[in-house]
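Per reviewer request, we include the raw input and output of the structure prediction for the construct analysed in the revised manuscript.
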Amino acid sequence: MASRFVQIYDTTLRDGTQREGISYTVLDKLRIARRLDALGVAYIEGGWPGSNPKDAEFFQRAREEHFKHAKLTAFGMTRRSSHPPEEDPNLKALLEAATPVCTLFGKSWTLHVTEVLRTTLDQNLLMIEDSVRFLKNSGREVIYDAEHFFDGYAADPKYALETLKAAARGGASAVVLCDTNGGTLPWQIEDLVRIAINSVPAPVGIHAHNDAGCAVANSLAAVRAGAVQVQGTVNGYGERCGNANLSAIIPNLELKLGVSCVPPGKVRDISELSRFVSDVANLTFDEHAPYVGNSAFAHKGGVHVAAMRRHPDSYQHITPEFVGNCMRVVVSELSGKGNILSKAEELGLQGQFGDEGEALQEVKDAEARGLSFESAEASLGLLLRRREPDYVPPFSILDYHVMVGRRAGSSETFAEATVKLRIGEQVVHTAGAGNGPVSALSDALLKALTPVFPHVSDVHLADYKVRILDSKAGTEAITRVLIDSHDQAGGFSTVGASPNIIDASLAALVDSLEFYLLRSSPETKPASIPAPQAGAEAREAEAP
């Protein structure tokens, strides 16, 4: 049982938006705020109401929200040297945001006081104390962010600590040490947090940036030293190299340090939250992210998988389900028999595909020809199914023809394809058209299959990726094609490889349709074969 509690202060909606490529709408921010509250963070920093109309609108609409766990926070800076607090526009905007908490940042580094603010050191201390006290007297809880504290301490230790004391005199509920430039190392963080705790009559927090790749470690070091608040963002989103990554910090606090930071059991929601924020931000999710990535508990090496089959802790530092993730086995040319057995069990094929050593060799031979099953588990499942003595495919390609051209007087190209299929005892010959050869082949295949399998129209090609495996071979290089498909049950991926890009595409396309028919058609689907799951749908289905 956790012996300590540390507040999680989430700044995804403010500091996280400073990452290149992120631009949330007001609705996006409200959706993320609701999910953060459901996770159970202590504070949600919604934005800077004095900086832009969008943040002002967010705070206005957020008044209609009823957060169960989190306090909504508005962010801003201390008063200007030329304004008393009651006349300062920024402080007025903070009050107008009507949040229960205001977070103020002020200068801790003498360089910034004299060169950026262009004021005196004593005046800066008054600005900090006056601003905090004004908001405190206005009925707000006030958190003080000491910007550039660690650089400021290196330049003038006494003055950096005096800025914290000024905030404490004003009534700050916490003073947060900010590694704004992100270049401080963990042992330095730990030492200075202890110094601050012993010097300032207020609780101490940490706000780390990741410019030296140490933001998570720095946050944990601060907690070891006694910090009671950790500020960060989901997935570590933020300016430059990002902020401290709460998707790693929260599991580390709960599972490694025995420190409670979210309500009991909520750490299991961290994987789903990380993907949700990535989706809303319209950013590619890092599948190799600690704890939450799809590869965080994926095992590829044959020795690893063999050990994992004997004991799941042999190559995993935690049980994946603790963070809402799951263990996966990847099959490739590096695999051993254990990979094949584990993947077969996952696909419901135990004992039906023959000798696992022969199956493993077939996988390795296929990968030597350019195929890759790591991201194409549907094709791997078909490879194993096709090894069954009594397996009969729902259809097979007898021949095909593709023509691409440009008609006279037109600048647009066209593509036409014909395919001849065997479906049961029937031979079907159809033609299709499209804006390219793969599109035309898909059209022809669907026309041939739909009369026999009407539901085949439910499967849709979601993504098409091409990779040249050996560009030095020129036009004779092997081309690998990966097709992602979706149907009502979720997503799956198939692969093809050939020196001919059309052959490679057709192989991946045939696999996608054959796999779909096997799992969806009552006439062809073996009841024992579930869909190899990939993507967000799979994680939701598998999460405990």
